Amino acid sequence: MADSTSFVDFQQVSLAYDDSGNAIEDISLSIGEGEFVAFVGPSGCGKSTFMKLCTGLHAPTGGSVKVDGVEVGGPLKICGMAFQSANLLPWRTTLDNVLLPLEIVKPYRSQFRQRRAEFVGWARDLLRTVGLEGYEDQYPWQLSGGMQQRASICRALIHRPRLLMLDEPFGALDAFTREELWCVLRDLWEAQRFTVVLVTHDLREAAFLADTVYVMSRRPGRIIERREIDLPRPRDLAVTYEKPFIDMVQELRNLIGDIRSA
Ligand SMILES: Nc1ncnc2c1ncn2[C@@H]1O[C@H](COP(=O)(O)OP(=O)(O)OP(=O)(O)O)[C@@H](O)[C@H]1O
């Protein structure tokens, strides 16, 4: 379970990109260390904007964003990120793609040459955990979409971030691969208990993976519902065919339907 103290803390946060008004407005919430939260809402409601604020890629125009007790003032080093597109570098092998953050992020970058063998060990361990053992020397174009996304999750985790930001990471995958990767992510999170912020359009994904689901309104995005997912852990895919899960997803779907038609 999540730590009860606040790790990510938003107080009355707003962001206006330009003079067209607020993209998100008056967001106050608190995420505990080790908590898995998901954000859902209609397109354009500000889910990705929330992530940019959380990671320090954008500063709020109102309110305060703190991570680990400190006001966020620039890009955070304790973050790992993965997106809908795996964005692996085509000229690097899978292993070298996964190692990339260690070449860039402090404090690892200054130690990279010296500790390379150890870091390669970390990368191989992660790749094994997500089922990519044997593919370390393949190039991204030799991997399927699902395999590329597995590698991208390894790359997001290689520098042992405390906060993992996932922006629709499984959105481009077929349903079977997507569910397989839910389980990969679930197992990594169960083992390492980093804090996760997942943005998704898939309500089943949100309900299966998260401790807490936040539903956002249309622009300007506000939090209109906070839903705790009280299904016991560890969760197996079988849970997604049971009534409590189906009812919960239906409730979320109705909420978003109401927002869209409002
Ligand atoms: N760099 C930017 N400059 C100006 N406006 C922006 C910028 N990025 C996003 N917006 C606007 O802010 C609002 C929120 O966008 P955001 O990408 O956060 O929504 P989202 O919920 O992630 O959307 P989707 O579900 O479609 O991915 C949208 O109206 C969008 O047009």
Automatic annotation (TrEMBL):
Q: Which Pfam families match?
A: ABC_tran
Coiled-coil intervals: none
- Family assignment? Belongs to the ABC transporter superfamily.
Q: Write down the SMART domains for this protein, in alphabetical order.
A: AAA
Lineage per the UniProt record? Bacteria, Pseudomonadati, Pseudomonadota, Gammaproteobacteria, Oceanospirillales
- Which segments constitute the ABC transporter domain? 8-243
Print the keywords alphabetically.
Answer: ATP-binding, Nucleotide-binding, Transport
Q: Which InterPro entries match?
A: AAA+_ATPase, ABC_transporter-like_ATP-bd, ABC_transporter-like_CS, ABC_transporter_ATP-bind, P-loop_NTPase
List, in alphabetical order, the Gene Ontology terms for molecular function in this entry. Answer: ATP binding; ATP hydrolysis activity
Q: What is this protein called?
A: ABC transporter ATP-binding protein
